[in-house]
């Protein structure tokens, strides 16, 4: 694996840089890997499912893959220890939001969701601080905007949504000059969304096309374009970037 040219990232492209995508076998992570490759990056993909990971790597031309559960911090440590050298950017898309009424909460699933959204970024940041990410490189985490609403069933999602921006801002100070940012999408048309919505997916797409100010559904390519921009714009750190097509501006959407 080519781990870059040894200097800080510079310029609009990613040529000679290495981008690690944790949770890169589908959706936003896979599309980010695709766009990073198009900008000249070497890409490392991780995911839980070896088969899907292998297919994703072949699709985007990833130079290295590693199949493991990112919330298994021992496995995460082993992954970073096994890299040939420092990398330039790490994006984390692993994990799904957890929704559930108090009476219905599955604490095992809820714990895994919290680990993915709050503890996994801390663990990745520790590796960055230990020299696994080059100075001037970046960490990029993903959250969401849905948990900003107040409704029954959103207690844990709201907790994670509120906590991530504060976590990212503090990490940006602690791991500097590595940059740390957070992407907060609304609904994105991905396999995860399809899995969560099931038979309601098409209805939700139609609702968003009619109601969003942009008059279309946000796709993984939109989020990936923002991710690549955050990697290449070296003035950006410690901030949260919403990307929801104006969903928060429309009541009831």
Task: Give a short summary of the structure.
By secondary structure, this protein is α/β, with parallel strands linked by helices. Helix content is 43%, strand content 17%.
Brief descriptors of the model:
globular, Rossmann fold, alpha/beta, seven-stranded parallel β-sheet, disordered N terminus, 7 strands, 253 residues
Describe the structure.
The protein has 253 residues and is α/β, with parallel strands linked by helices. It has a single domain (18-189, 221-243), classed as Rossmann fold (3-Layer(aba) Sandwich). The protein is 43% helix and 17% strand. It is built from 8 helices and 7 strands. A 7-stranded parallel β-sheet has the order 3-2-1-4-5-6-7, sandwiched between helices. Helix 3 (73-82) packs parallel to helix 4. It is globular and about 45 Å long. The relative contact order is 0.15. The model is unreliable at 1-11 (pLDDT under 50).
Layout of secondary structure:
Layout: E1 18-22, H1 27-38, E2 42-47, H2 50-60, E3 64-67, H3 73-82, E4 87-92, H4 107-132, E5 133-142, H5 155-174, E6 179-185, H6 191-197, H7 201-211, H8 220-232, E7 240-243
Parallel strand pairs: 1-2, 1-4, 2-3, 4-5, 5-6, 6-7
Helix pairs in contact: 1-8, 3-4, 4-5
Strand arrangement, major sheet: 3-2-1-4-5-6-7
Largest beta-sheet details: 7 strands, parallel
CATH architecture: 3-Layer(aba) Sandwich
Structural class: alpha/beta
Rg, please? 17 Å
How many helices does DSSP assign? 8
Please state the average pLDDT score.
91
- The residue fraction in helices comes out at 40-55%
Oligomer: single chain
From the 3D structure, determine the CATH topology: Rossmann fold
CATH homology superfamily: NAD(P)-binding Rossmann-like Domain
What is the number of strand segments? 7
The number of domains: 1
Distance between the termini: 44 Å
Strand and helix order:
EHEHEHEHEHEHHHE
Highest-level CATH class: Alpha Beta
Uncertain spans? 1-11
**What share of the residues does DSSP label as strand, in percent?**
15-25%
């Amino acid at each position: 694996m080519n781990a870059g040219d040894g200097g800080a990232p510079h310029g609009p492209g990613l040529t000679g840089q290495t981008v690690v995508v944790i949770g890169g076998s589908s959706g936003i992570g896979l599309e980010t890997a695709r766009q990073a490759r198009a900008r000249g990056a070497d890409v490392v993909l991780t995911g839980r499912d070896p088969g899907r990971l292998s297919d994703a790597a072949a699709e985007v031309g990833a130079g290295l893959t590693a199949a493991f559960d990112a919330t298994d911090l021992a496995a995460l440590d082993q992954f970073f220890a096994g890299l040939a050298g420092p990398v330039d950017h790490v994006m984390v898309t692993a994990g799904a939001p957890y929704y559930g009424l108090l009476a219905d909460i599955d604490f095992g699933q809820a714990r895994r969701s919290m680990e993915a959204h709050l503890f996994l970024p801390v663990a990745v940041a520790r590796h960055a601080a230990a020299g696994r990410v080059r100075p001037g490189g970046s960490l990029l985490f993903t959250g969401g905007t849905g948990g900003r609403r107040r409704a029954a069933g959103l207690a844990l999602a709201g907790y994670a949504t509120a906590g991530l921006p504060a976590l990212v801002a503090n990490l940006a100070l602690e791991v500097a000059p590595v940059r740390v940012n957070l992407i907060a999408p609304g609904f994105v048309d991905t396999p995860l969304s399809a899995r969560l919505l099931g038979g309601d997916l098409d209805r939700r797409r139609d609702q968003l096309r009619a109601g969003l100010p942009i008059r279309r559904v946000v796709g993984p390519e939109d989020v990936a374009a923002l991710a690549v921009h955050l990697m290449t714009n070296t003035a950006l750190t410690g901030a949260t970037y919403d990307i929801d097509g104006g969903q928060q501006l429309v009541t009831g959407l």
